[in-house]
Amino acid sequence: MKSRLLHAFVCAALVGVSFLAHAQGVYPSQPVRLIVPFAPGGSTDVLARAVADGLRKELGQSVVVENRAGAGGLIGTEAVARAEPDGYTLGMATVSTMAVNPLLYGTARVDPAKQLTAVGSVANVPVVWMVNPAFPATDFAQFLAELRGHPGKYSFGSPGVGSLGHLNLAAMNADLQVEVLHVPYRGMGPALTAAVGGEVQVQQDQYASAQSLIKAGKLRPIAVAAPARLPGLPQLPTLAELGYPQLNALGQTWFGLVAPAGTPDAVVRRLNDAVRRALAEPALVQRLATLGAEPDTGTPQEFTQRIAQTLAANRKIIETAAIKLDE
């Protein structure tokens, strides 16, 4: 009797192992959910939908984009962290969600290092430094001279206290040795409106959303944070060219994919491979280019390292500028 029971147990165990191996081998066998921690229509959402289309072709499954906005990206990021680590829930990771929120809100709600697994980077989006057309400068040298000659005279509009724009301003003030005042708004839209109207004189924004204002002459570009000059603005130098490589690196907005911690390594590798293949397709590359985004792929380990490096850089900025959410 014991022998038969043992035999039955072993057979059942082997069947279970075989089923699990088969299930892992055919991943994905059902639709994948991609959570965007911001509202529809923004740059993160638009980029996520472009990437989702590419992943559908590579994975052979639907990739459904789900917007879970709120609390500066915390709500959507929490949803990813709490999901089953089976590869069927992914999240769009941004500099804000991975390398700003943990520093300002703490890690009580989401600790990216412990609750999320890096799948891979997706794209870089350049950020353009701009001024109101009435600002007395047409190039970076004049811009710098004007700011240094009139400390505290000019102001900068950000999407809010603790936003990337706020951190970039703090870094700009420190690295350029200038004093530009911070004016927080409730979102990037109102901040851009204030810059166009002259309520603030200095502005930074992603090229994707700023290019229409630049083409219309409503804002004047001064420099760009990007790996290379932009095809649409070939005359505009990068901050690295101008001698500020750190500002150039900090100013670039990166995006990537994450999964819940504990997602099997084989699944993460499968997803990473799918992302890399999707972003090598000319049609998707061109689609990202219309957003001002450049594909940026790498291994999960490389993305993990980039997150850590950005966290360290942002921690230094926040501590030096004493940035707090209750400002």
Please tag this protein with its features.
327 residues, alpha/beta, D-Maltodextrin-Binding Protein, domain 2, 2 domains, 6-stranded mixed β-sheet, 11 strands, ABC transporter substrate-binding protein, signal, Bug_dom1, BUG
Q: Would you write up a description of this structure?
A:
By secondary structure, the protein is α/β, with parallel strands linked by helices. α2 crosses α12. The longest helix has 24 residues, at 2-25. 48% of the residues lie in helices and 18% in strands. The chain folds into two domains: 32-125 and 252-321, Bordetella uptake gene, domain 1 (D-Maltodextrin-Binding Protein, domain 2, 3-Layer(aba) Sandwich); 126-251, D-Maltodextrin-Binding Protein, domain 2 (3-Layer(aba) Sandwich).
Please give the alpha-carbon distance between the first and last residues.
Answer: 74 Å
Give helix % range: 40-55%
How would you name the CATH homologous superfamily of the largest domain?
Bordetella uptake gene, domain 1
Q: Note the run of SSEs as H and E.
A: HEHEHEHHHEEHEHEHEHEHEHHEH
Radius of gyration from the alpha-carbon trace, in angstroms: 23 Å
Rounded mean pLDDT is 90
Write the layout of secondary structure elements.
Layout: H1 2-25, E1 32-36, H2 43-59, E2 63-67, H3 74-82, E3 89-94, H4 95-99, H5 101-104, H6 112-115, E4 116-125, E5 127-131, H7 140-149, E6 155-158, H8 164-176, E7 181-184, H9 188-197, E8 202-206, H10 207-215, E9 220-225, H11 245-251, E10 253-260, H12 265-278, H13 282-289, E11 294-295, H14 300-321
Parallel strand pairs: 1-2, 1-3, 6-7
Antiparallel strand pairs: 3-10, 4-10, 4-11, 5-8, 5-9
Helix pairs in contact: 2-12
